[in-house]
Q: What sequence folds into this?
C-alpha cells in the first residue's frame, strides 16, 4: 500500500485513559492517547518499560477496561458494547502475546489450543471440520502436521509462537495487537516469525498494532510508529521518516541510544541522563521535562498537545519548532 | 603462549550429565585473551556461551556440570585443576562475573554498601572502616552518590542495580571481568548508560573483558575481538571489525543477515532455516550442515578442522579447500534491499 492513499481507519482511538488506583495515588498508565490505524497497515508502538504501550494494546481490546476515552473499531464504538456484542467483535480483534512459554496452556495439545476459539465461537460443524480447520491454520503458520497432538513443552520458542499466531488467526480477525511477539526469541527464529507475520498480513489483509521495545524490529515491521513516554504518545511519524529525523528530544535520545553494528557511526555519545519518572500522580507539564536538555520553565506549565509538523508527522513538545 | 597472555582456553569441553541425557554444551573450544583485551562471545541460546563462562569461574552446577577435557590457563595456572578453596580466592578478586538479571543478583536484605564492602573484606581488607569507605568510592565510580550506600536493592531501579553489581565486581580491581548479557534486562537508554560506563571503567582500570551477548551491536560497542559460538563450538574467531564486515563462516553470515537493523533498510529478513541441533545427540560431520546454504555431501561425514584465514580462525570445510567457496553475498546486512 502506498502513501497518500486515503484509507479508512479501521481503528480510531480518542483520548484514551487508563488510570490504576494504587495506595500511593492514581497511576496514569495511559494518559490521553489518540491515534488511528488504517486498514492493512501496521502501527508500531515503542517505548521503554512502564511507558504504557502494553496497557494501551490491552485497553483497546477491553482486556483492561478503559477509564475514559473512545475506541472505534470498524465504525463501532466498542466502549459501550455489552458482553455478547463484545464477544462478537473480539473475534475480529485478536492478540499475540510476548512469551510463548507462559501464554499457552501446558495441558492442551497444539490442536486443542488452536481449535479452542473455533469451538467457543461455534464456527465448526463437526469434529472432522475442526480437524481440517486446525490443520489449515497450522499450515498457514508453517507448523508441521506431526505436531498436531504435541504439547507446548515439547516445542521450542519459535514453534510455540507459531501456535499463538495460529490461535489468533483462527477466527479470521481483521486486527491483531502484537505485544512483543518476537522479544523472547533468538534472532534467527525472530526473523522467521517476522517474515511470517508480514506474509500473513499481505495474504489476509491484516491490520497490526505492533508493541515492542526493540527499535530495529519496529522500524522493520511498521508503516507508522508512535513513541510513548510515561503514558503518552510524544511523537508519531511514518517509520522511515522517524529514523531520519526526530522532532521530540526523547525520540532523538531513544534512537541515539541504540547500539549500532557500524562502528563508524560513533555510538553512545549523547546518552540520556536520569531515568524514567513515576507515573503515579504525575505533575502537569511535559513528562520528559526532568530529563530534557531543552527544558524551559514553560514546559512544566501544561501538557504539550500532539501537534502536526507536516504530513503524517506529529509531536508533543512545546519547543518542537525551535529545536 | 605469548608473554602478555591472561587467559588461554585449550580444547575445553563441558558437559551436563543427567539421568536422561548428556548435554554437550561446550565441545572443544580454544580462546586466547591478552591483558587489557576485550573479547565478545556471541551466539544464540544454547550455543554454550554461559557454560564457557561458568567453566572459567568454576561455578558449574555441582551435580551435573563437568569439564570433560581441556584446560583453562589463567595467569599460568590451570583453573580446571585448581582446588575449590583456591578458586574462592581467585573469584571476585582476580576474575569477576556480572550476570544478566540485576534483580536477582543482589541480596535483598543487605544494604548495597555492605554488599560491596563484603567482597573487599573477603579478599583481604582487614579494616571494616576502610572497606566501607572503599565501597562508597566504588559507588561514586559507577555514578551513584555514596550516601545511597545504606539503601537496599529494592530502592534502586534496574539500571542502578546493575551499576551496584558492576561496583561489586570491580571492587577488588580484578584482571578479568566476565559480563554475561549485562544489559539484556535493561531499557535501551539505560543500556547505553551502562555500556558507556563499562567502556570508560575499562579504559581507566585496564580490566580485560569477556562480554557474552546475543546482541551483535552491544558486542560491537565494547569488544576488539569476537568469537561466534554455535552448538558448543567456536565457528569463527577474530578481530570484530573484520568478522562483522566480512563474515567467513556461513553461520556468522546468517546471523548478520537475519537481524533487522536501523541503519539498513530491508524489505524482508533472511532467516537461518531450521533450528539449533539437539545438544544431547552426537553428530558426525559439520554441526551447522543442516542449516547451511553452502553445504555439500562431504559436510555430512567430515568434521571441519580450524583453519587460519587472514588472521581469523574459521571452522568450515570451505576454508580447508574441501568445498567451493561461497561466491558472493550482500555485505551490508543481506536480505532484500529496498
A:
Amino acid at each position: 500500500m502506498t502513501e497518500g492513499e486515503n484509507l479508512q481507519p479501521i481503528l480510531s482511538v480518542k483520548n484514551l485513559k487508563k488510570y490504576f488506583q494504587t495506595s500511593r495515588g492514581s497511576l496514569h498508565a495511559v494518559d490521553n492517547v489518540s491515534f488511528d490505524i488504517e486498514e492493512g497497515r501496521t502501527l508500531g508502538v515503542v517505548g521503554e518499560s512502564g511507558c504504557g504501550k502494553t496497557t494501551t494494546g490491552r485497553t483497546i481490546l477491553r482486556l483492561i477496561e478503559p477509564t475514559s476515552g473512545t475506541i472505534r473499531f470498524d465504525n463501532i464504538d466498542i466502549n459501550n458494547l455489552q458482553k455478547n456484542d463484545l464477544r462478537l467483535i473480539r473475534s475480529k480483534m485478536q492478540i499475540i502475546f510476548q512469551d510463548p512459554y507462559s501464554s499457552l496452556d501446558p495441558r492442551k495439545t497444539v490442536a486443542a489450543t488452536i481449535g479452542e476459539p473455533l469451538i467457543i465461537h461455534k464456527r465448526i460443524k463437526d469434529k472432522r471440520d475442526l480437524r481440517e480447520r486446525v490443520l489449515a491454520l497450522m499450515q498457514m503458520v508453517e507448523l508441521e502436521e506431526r505436531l498436531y497432538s504435541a504439547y507446548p513443552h515439547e516445542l521450542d520458542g519459535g514453534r510455540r509462537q507459531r501456535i499463538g499466531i495460529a490461535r489468533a488467526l483462527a477466527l479470521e480477525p481483521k486486527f491483531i495487537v502484537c505485544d512483543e511477539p518476537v522479544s523472547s526469541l533468538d534472532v534467527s527464529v525472530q526473523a522467521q516469525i517476522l517474515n511470517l507475520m508480514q506474509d500473513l498480513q499481505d495474504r489476509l489483509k491484516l491490520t497490526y498494532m505492533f508493541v515492542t521495545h526493540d527499535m530495529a524490529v519496529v522500524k522493520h515491521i511498521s508503516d507508522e510508529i508512535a513513541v510513548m513516554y510515561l503514558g503518552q504518545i510524544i511523537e508519531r511519524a511514518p517509520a522511515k521518516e522517524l529514523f531520519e529525523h526526530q522532532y521530540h528530544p526523547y525520540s532523538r535520545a531513544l534512537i541515539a541510544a541504540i547500539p549500532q553494528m557500524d562502528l563508524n557511526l560513533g555510538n553512545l555519545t549523547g546518552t540520556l541522563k536520569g531515568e524514567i519518572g513515576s507515573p503515579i500522580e504525575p505533575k502537569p507539564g511535559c513528562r520528559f521535562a526532568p530529563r530534557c536538555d531543552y527544558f524551559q520553565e514553560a514546559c512544566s506549565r501544561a501538557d504539550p498537545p500532539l501537534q502536526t509538523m507536516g504530513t503524517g508527522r506529529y509531536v508533543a513538545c512545546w519547543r518542537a519548532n525551535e529545536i | 603462549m605469548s608473554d602478555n597472555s591472561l587467559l588461554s582456553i585449550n580444547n575445553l569441553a563441558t558437559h551436563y550429565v543427567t539421568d536422561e541425557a548428556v548435554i554437550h554444551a561446550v565441545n572443544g573450544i580454544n580462546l586466547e585473551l591478552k591483558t587489557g583485551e576485550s573479547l565478545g562471545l556471541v551466539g544464540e541460546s544454547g550455543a554454550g556461551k554461559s557454560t564457557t563462562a561458568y567453566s572459567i569461574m568454576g561455578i558449574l552446577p555441582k551435580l551435573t556440570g563437568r569439564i570433560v577435557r581441556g584446560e583453562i590457563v589463567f595467569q599460568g595456572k590451570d583453573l580446571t585443576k585448581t582446588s575449590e578453596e583456591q578458586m574462592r580466592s581467585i573469584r571476585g578478586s582476580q576474575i569477576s562475573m556480572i550476570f544478566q538479571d540485576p534483580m536477582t543478583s543482589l541480596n535483598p536484605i543487605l544494604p548495597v554498601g555492605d554488599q560491596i564492602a563484603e567482597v573487599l573484606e573477603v579478599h583481604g581488607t582487614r579494616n571494616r572502616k576502610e572497606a566501607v569507605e572503599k565501597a562508597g568510592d566504588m559507588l561514586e565510580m559507577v555514578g551513584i552518590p555514596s550516601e545511597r550506600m545504606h539503601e537496599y536493592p529494592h530502592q534502586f531501579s534496574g539500571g542502578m542495580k546493575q551499576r551496584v553489581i558492576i561496583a561489586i565486581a570491580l571492587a577488588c580491581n580484578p584482571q578479568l571481568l566476565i559480563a554475561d548479557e549485562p544489559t539484556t534486562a535493561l531499557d535501551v537508554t539505560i543500556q547505553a548508560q551502562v555500556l558507556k560506563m563499562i567502556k570508560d571503567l575499562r579504559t581507566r582500570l585496564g580490566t580485560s573483558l569477556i562480554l557474552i551477548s546475543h546482541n551483535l551491536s552491544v558486542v560491537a560497542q565494547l569488544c576488539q575481538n569476537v568469537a561466534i559460538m554455535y552448538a558448543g563450538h567456536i565457528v569463527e574467531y577474530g578481530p570484530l571489525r573484520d568478522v562483522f564486515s566480512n563474515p567467513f563462516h556461513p553461520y556468522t553470515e546468517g546471523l548478520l543477515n537475519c537481524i533487522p537493523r536501523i541503519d539498513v533498510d530491508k524489505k524482508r529478513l533472511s532467516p537461518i532455516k531450521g533450528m539449533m541441533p539437539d545438544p544431547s545427540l552426537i553428530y558426525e560431520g559439520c554441526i551447522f550442515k543442516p542449516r547451511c546454504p553452502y553445504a555439500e555431501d562431504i559436510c555430512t561425514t567430515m568434521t571441519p578442522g580450524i583453519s587460519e584465514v587472514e588472521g581469523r580462525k574459521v571452522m568450515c570445510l570451505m576454508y580447508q579447500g574441501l568445498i567451493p567457496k561461497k561466491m558472493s553475498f550482500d555485505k551490508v546486512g543481506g536480505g532484500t534491499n529496498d
Summary: Chain A touches chain B through 41 residues (CB under 8 Å). The first strand of chain A starts at residue 9 and ends at 22. The two ends of chain A are 33 Å apart (CA to CA).
